UniProtKB/TrEMBL annotation:
This is LysR family transcriptional regulator. Residues 3-60 form the HTH lysR-type domain. PANTHER family: HTH-TYPE TRANSCRIPTIONAL REGULATOR CYNR, TRANSCRIPTIONAL DUAL REGULATOR HCAR-RELATED. Belongs to the LysR transcriptional regulatory family. It comes from Streptomyces niphimycinicus. Coiled coil: none annotated. Pfam families: HTH_1, LysR_substrate. InterPro entries: LysR_HTH_N, LysR_subst-bd.
Length: 284
């Protein structure tokens, strides 16, 4: 059973306009075409939808229900078309944990000033692609490489690795720490979206690990002193907590911040976003 959009539009037009003649005018087709289209819809559904007299056309009981559904379907389709046509008037940038750290407000403000015709939206999505694979965003801020067969990316900046410990932890009294200072601790990691695993340490001095899947849980566990964490500098900017101390890990490699997009469907504003973010990270 195949119901076509033109059949639903025809049915709704007849009900709204009141006559076949007026529906034909509204649709820009002949009255005969309106009659044929309605007849084909009734045959497809196997039921009568309209009562026709010499004076008026009114829906049957079934017709009323079908018209109500048709209005919803047509509204959804019209919304889909508007989104496809005007999608480039919006730019959605996804991120998993922290967006752009201390650069986030500046990026939003500069974008609004320089490109007011393209609305910018930052969207937090806890997935490995920060919502890109799920279709939630047009670009994604990621801090580890994605599948190069599907996605392209550009490095826009580097961020220091920071250790996160409870505020009353002895390491919190230091200005910085080394990887060796954490090897005897339990490291709380997010293998799905995180940037740190035990492989960052030499094989003979790797810390024990526990897993988490949410930044709020990560912060709660660390503040209680059960585990320590390691994260990008942006996390400290976006999630300061009274019970958490962030300290630089001076012998850990920095983390590359990437902007990623679908290889076969880049947003027109991609290069503009790359250039603005690169400038912000370069200028500190």
């Amino acid at each position: 059973m195949d119901v076509e959009l033109r059949q639903l539009r025809c049915l709704v037009a007849i009900v709204d306009e009141g006559t076949f003649t007026d529906a034909a005018i509204a649709l820009g087709v002949s009255q005969a075409a309106v009659s044929r289209t309605l007849a084909s819809l009734e045959r497809t559904l196997g039921t009568r939808l309209l009562r026709r007299t010499s004076r008026e056309v009114t829906p049957t009981g079934t017709g009323l229900r079908v018209v109500a559904h048709a209005r919803r379907v047509l509204a959804e389709v019209d919304g889909l078309i508007r989104e496809a046509i005007s999608g480039h008037a919006h730019l959605r940038i996804g991120y998993a944990w922290s967006a752009l750290g201390r650069h986030t407000p500046a990026f939003q403000r500069r974008w609004a000033q320089a490109y007011p015709e393209t609305d910018l939206h930052l969207v937090r999505v806890h997935s490995a692609t920060a919502g890109l694979a799920e279709g939630v965003c047009d670009l994604a801020v990621v801090r580890r490489a994605l599948d190069e067969r599907r996605f392209d990316s550009a490095i826009v900046g580097l961020e220091r690795r920071l250790c996160a410990v409870a505020a009353d932890d002895p390491l919190a009294r230091r200005r910085s720490v080394r990887l060796a200072d954490l090897s005897g601790r339990t490291l709380l990691v997010d293998r799905r979206t995180g940037t740190t695993t035990a492989e960052l340490w030499p094989p003979d001095s790797r810390p024990a690990t526990e897993e988490t899947h949410d930044v709020e849980d990560w912060l709660t566990v660390i503040s209680a002193g059960r585990c320590v964490g390691m994260t990008a500098e942006s996390t400290a900017n976006q999630y300061p907590r009274p019970g958490i101390a962030y300290r630089p890990v001076r012998d850990a490699e920095p983390i590359a911040v990437r902007l990623a997009w679908w290889r076969d469907d880049p947003h027109p504003a991609t290069q503009t976003a790359i250039e603005l973010l690169t400038t912000l990270y370069r200028n500190g």
